[in-house]
Design goal:
Elements: H1 2-6, H2 12-19, H3 23-31, H4 38-51, H5 57-64, E1 69-74, H6 80-95, E2 99-104, H7 109-121, E3 126-129, H8 137-144, E4 149-152, E5 162-166, H9 168-181, E6 186-191, H10 197-213, E7 216-221, H11 227-238, E8 248-251, H12 254-266, E9 276-281, E10 294-297, H13 300-316, E11 324-327, E12 330-332, H14 335-338
Parallel strand pairs: 1-2, 1-3, 3-4, 4-5, 5-11, 6-7, 6-8, 8-9, 9-10
Antiparallel strand pairs: 10-12
Helix pairs in contact: 2-3, 2-4, 6-13, 9-10, 11-12
Pfam families: LacI, Peripla_BP_3
GO molecular function, one term: transcription cis-regulatory region binding
Protein name: Substrate-binding domain-containing protein
Length: 345
Amino acid sequence: MAGARSNRGPLLRDVAQRAGVSVGTVSNVLNNPEKVSPETLTRVQAAITELGFVPNAAARQLRAGRSASVGLLVLDVRNPFFTDLAAGVEEAAIDSGLAVILATSSGRPDREAMYLERFEQSRVDGVLVTPVGSSVEPLVALRDRGTPVILLDRLTQTPGFSSIAVDDAEGGRLGGQHLVDIGCRHIAFVGGPRTLEQVRNRAAGARRVAEAAGVDLTEILTTDMSADEGHRVGTEIAALPPDERPDGIFAGNDLIALAVLQALLSAGIRVPEEVAVLGYDDIPFAALATVPLSSIRQPSHLMGQRAMALLTAHLRGDTAHSDHEVFTPELIVRGTTAGHRRDDA
């Protein structure tokens, strides 16, 4: 029994015994110190220090109904876009005295549901989330039970939500127009699944430009937005006869684009002379590729900061309505598109 006792930290009753007070008095010292006399307060605090007592944060959260933390649920924490976004959220959260609990859904609805449930059970003050699919019903239910929810990297017309996003249709238009302007006649848009609103909007923006210019655009779906899928698609494209191969590739994110680029270069295909490659996000690695990657830039860090600012406003009751902030993407031209030329140009 003594061994078992030594394996746990001191309890509330141990502090009470050391200080010569009741357990209720120790509880008041921790939660309502104004109710305790200065002499008793000093004695209990000394006992806490001597024993190395650590208050049970979970129990205090249960009593207070809040945790001084927020949940951040993103699609894929391996993607540097979301890593930078999370850094922006954390920076703003710390300024507000809040901690950030980060989780990744990996694009799976079941994992999204699990983490939303865990966040609610942990009594987080609010949730910032990049939804997996088109339905926001689980988020509506969470919000209606009292947890503020901010949508990240996703626009929605659902009443009661605030959101931070980039105009992905405009990003798709910028990318498609750039590839058309440098002479691409057969563009492949690579990304998926189609359940992701971002992918649909980027592809739609590129398609509108291609159709207006009389340029072929083929959509190559991926099961997710990973480098593995990009390498698979890049290898398949590299194996095509030159006359069937697209001369412009617009990837749904930079991870896919960089993997496609690697597959093409490994197969001896010249980039950008034979095939131009364009990514999306402009992650830090984009500029460091063997052939620096052209990309559509999203202000990920700023998006995270602004999302946290929106959530903080909701928590403080500073806003009674939904706010939707949309950032404009920016085309960043580098080596994977800058030197492309058509043989018949």
